[in-house]
């Protein structure tokens, strides 16, 4: 059972785009050394001379309008990082600028906790980052009490299997050194790393699935270029009016997951979409999500988020 939360327990905190809880690194996991960046000064303006823009197809993936918006979905977005000469206000650091919208975690009749915004959100705007503990997928057997596990699998993003609409102009992942540690056959079978939000995490863990979502998942690389350890961001796929529930497609496929006894797991969908697939089974697409329940929600309330007991 998901714990009920009364309005007097609502609270607001401060934090970044991950919703107040940044990525924690588990023992045995070593983050890559920061990759060399561009030589731009102040802000990246000219894509012809910006090294980071070259990785994005010789153009910037964002426009500065509305505080930064992603022009189109890509296999991977390369942002400016700690080794770049530009400052924190650079448009190519859009996903690093923190929460921009007033988000609310609320309770629904059938889907448990959900998330919506009090503000209008324009298409292409970054919503939040999926955060938690970064760990090796093989170590999950030694972890008790897992609730939300996301497997980082950008290979499926590149193959267009991530459950979101692929728009014209989507660029393939650059070749050579920008695929650090990439093994196509190995990655195809399973993701090496995952994000465990069972004990720490942000608002993204409360966002529900929909067969007709208004968000999409985007892999982002900023401090390094190892796609196995990409940051996972949620962006607005459409203009989203205030108080509309935020959702993304988890990437379900029918009859693909079974219990230990071999019986198929039946997971009813309550998204309410016109083209709802109704009965779904979860597999690893861009992210693999394992939902085992939710304990004390107050331990996961992210920054700038209001939690209420409504609906």
TrEMBL record:
It is found in: Chromosome. This is Histone-lysine N-methyltransferase, H3 lysine-9 specific SUVH4. The keyword Metal-binding does not apply. Keywords: Chromosome, Methyltransferase, S-adenosyl-L-methionine, Transferase. One of its GO terms (molecular function) is histone methyltransferase activity. One of its GO terms (cellular component) is chromosome. It comes from the Eukaryota. It comes from Thalictrum thalictroides.
């Amino acid at each position: 059972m998901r714990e009920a939360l009364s309005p007097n327990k609502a609270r607001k905190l401060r934090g970044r785009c991950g919703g107040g809880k940044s990525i924690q690194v588990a023992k045995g996991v070593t983050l890559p050394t920061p990759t060399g960046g561009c030589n731009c000064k102040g802000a990246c303006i000219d894509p012809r001379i910006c090294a980071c823009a070259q990785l994005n197809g010789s153009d910037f993936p964002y426009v500065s309008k509305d505080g930064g918006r992603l022009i189109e979905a890509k296999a991977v977005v390369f942002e400016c990082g700690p080794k770049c000469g530009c400052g924190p206000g650079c448009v190519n650091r859009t996903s690093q600028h923190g929460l921009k919208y007033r988000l609310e975690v609320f309770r629904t009749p059938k889907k448990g906790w959900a998330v919506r915004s009090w503000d209008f959100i324009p298409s292409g705007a970054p919503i939040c980052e999926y955060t938690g503990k970064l760990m090796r997928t093989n170590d999950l057997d030694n972890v008790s009490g897992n609730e939300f596990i996301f497997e980082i699998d950008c290979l499926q993003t590149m193959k267009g299997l991530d459950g979101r609409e692929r728009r014209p102009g989507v660029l393939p992942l650059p070749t050579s050194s920008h695929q650090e540690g990439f093994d196509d056959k190995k990655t195809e079978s399973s993701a090496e790393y995952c994000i465990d939000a069972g004990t720490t995490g942000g608002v993204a863990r409360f966002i529900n699935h929909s067969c007709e979502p208004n968000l999409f998942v985007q892999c982002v690389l900023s401090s390094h270029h190892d796609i196995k350890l990409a940051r996972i961001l949620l962006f607005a796929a459409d203009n989203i009016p205030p108080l509309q529930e935020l959702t993304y497609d988890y990437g379900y496929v029918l009859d693909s997951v079974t219990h230990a006894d071999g019986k198929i797991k039946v997971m009813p969908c309550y998204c309410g979409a016109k083209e709802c697939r109704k009965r779904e089974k979860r597999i690893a697409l861009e992210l693999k999500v394992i939902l085992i329940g939710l304990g004390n929600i107050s331990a996961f309330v992210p920054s700038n988020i209001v939690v209420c007991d409504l609906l």
